[in-house]
Amino acid sequence: MRRRPGIGGLQTAAATRDQYRLVGENVARIKTDLMKEQLTTFRSQLEDFARKHKNDIRKNPAFRSQFHDMCAKVGVDPLASNKGFWAELLGIGDFYYELGVQIVDICLATRSLNGGLINLQELCNMLCQKRKVARESVTEDDCLRAISKLKALGSGFEVISVGKKKLVRSVPTELNKDHNEILDLAQGQGYVTMEEVEKRLSWSSGRAIDDLETLLEEGLAMIDDGHKDGKRRYWFPCVSFVTTS
Amino acid sequence: MQKLGDFKLPHFFNYPPYFTLQLVKDTREKQVQLWKELILDYCRTQKLFVIGLNEDFPLFSNPAIERSLSHEAKEVFLSSLVSDGRAEWMDKGHKKCLILWLRIQDWADCILRFVKDNGLEDGVMTVEEIRSGIESRGTELHGMDRTVLMRALRLLEQKGKVAMFKGSSADDEGVKFSA
């Protein structure tokens, strides 16, 4: 637009700015309206989906897992809060909350037998037993999700990896690297001897005995002097299945 | 699940360390508790009343895992039962232990129930009849240990619920139940 000098020119400039502003606002409003419309459509389709599949999500672990994948791709975390759209519609927050409570129950019940460290697989088995009545089975994946929610509540629950296995820790005992290595070694036969620890990990006997004593004190290990070879064995309930058949 | 005859054994029975007396206090407490429950359960279902520490007791060893309880361990578990009032040492040397999977008071109650159920008030029976007669079949009284039965009867006698007397045959006692 050709600038005109003088008052007239200024007025034109102002009017032009106003017009641009109006157009801009219009465009913005159209965009917003469009977005709102898209969101409404999206939301109602989502609601339909959720209603149709709510049962599947609760009862079918494979479907549930795929559902989580889908959510992840879309950038949605259905467990992010217990309120809100997903939680209300699907009750999926409730599902994991319930699971969390059951996990806590099992860990507390077995704590005196395994020192507060339980094999993830064993935990999962026990959960499935518990939920048999409702015919809602769970996978290790579900357990891990529920535990991560528990963790967020600051409840002292943690999943640690020892070798190929995952153990769920429900007590504040910190396992240091040494302990972790002993547990890893124990996974072979469910126990270790002091000799094995010294030899396989190349430790001094002092170090080995200190660590084993700590693990005994923590209730994570039990002694066994009954073998005919006379060697003391240190058994770890958390790497065997002591509580279930 | 492993079985001893008809009896279902708990999982810990197959876990070797449970056959070694644990040294850590909390772990031992748990161990003692589990063994006590097992001993009472087993004796109740098998109707056993006496455990001899120097004899082979099937519960105290598990050949499948090649483990047996040491004498010390057996004594610890049984002594704990004694402290709970669920067992009594029969000798100073702690060689034989009487297992009260029902306490004497419970046995006394059993007898009273038996009297009521069979309309035996004011009736008379011999001690032997109580534990092996037809009427007691199907009840806990059937086949029970005579010593325990006598103790329960004496308790009832003290309370005036029964009167004991010597019968015509030299070797059995009679019991008169009060109305």
Descriptors:
heterodimer; A: 245 residues; mainly alpha; three-stranded antiparallel β-sheet; 6 strands; B: 179 residues; alpha+beta; 5 helices; 10 strands; 38% helix
Fold and architecture overview:
The complex is a heterodimer of chains A (245) and B (179). Chain A is elongated and about 110 Å long. Chain A is 63% helix and 9% strand. Chain A is built from 9 helices and 6 strands. Chain A is mainly α. The longest helix of chain A has 54 residues, at 6-59. In chain A, the strands form 2 sheets. A 3-stranded antiparallel sheet of chain A has the order 1-3-2, sandwiched between helices. The mean pLDDT of chain A is 82. Chain B has 179 residues and is of the alpha+beta class. In chain B, the strands form 4 sheets. In chain B, strands 3-7-6 form a 3-stranded antiparallel sheet, covered by helices on one side. Chain B has a 3-stranded antiparallel sheet with strand order 8-10-9. In chain B, strands 1-2 form a two-stranded antiparallel ribbon. Chain B is elongated and about 55 Å long. The termini of chain B are far apart. The A-B interface holds A 112-113, 191, 216-217, 219, 222-228, 233, 235, 237, 240, 242-245 and B 1, 11-12, 15-20, 22-24, 26-27, 30, 66-68.
Major beta sheet, strand line-up of chain B: 3-7-6
How are the strands ordered across the major sheet of chain A? 1-3-2
Helix content of chain B: 25-40%
Q: Oligomeric status of the shown chains?
A: heterodimer
Q: Secondary-structure element sequence of chain B?
A: EEHEEEHEEHEHHEE
The amount of beta strand of chain A, in percent, is 5-15%
Give the class of chain B from helix and strand content and strand pairing: alpha+beta
Q: What is the element layout, followed by pairings?
A:
The complex is a heterodimer of chains A (245) and B (179).
Chain A: H1 6-59, H2 61-74, H3 84-90, H4 92-114, E1 117-119, H5 120-131, H6 140-152, E2 158-162, E3 165-169, H7 177-186, E4 191-193, H8 194-201, H9 205-217, E5 222-224, E6 233-235
Antiparallel strand pairs in A: 1-3, 2-3, 4-6, 5-6
Helix pairs in contact in A: 1-2, 4-5, 4-6, 8-9
Chain B: E1 3-4, E2 7-8, H1 25-46, E3 50-52, E4 61-62, E5 67-68, H2 71-83, E6 87-89, E7 96-99, H3 104-117, E8 124-126, H4 127-132, H5 146-158, E9 162-166, E10 173-177
Antiparallel strand pairs in B: 1-2, 3-7, 4-5, 6-7, 8-10, 9-10
Helix pairs in contact in B: 1-2, 3-5
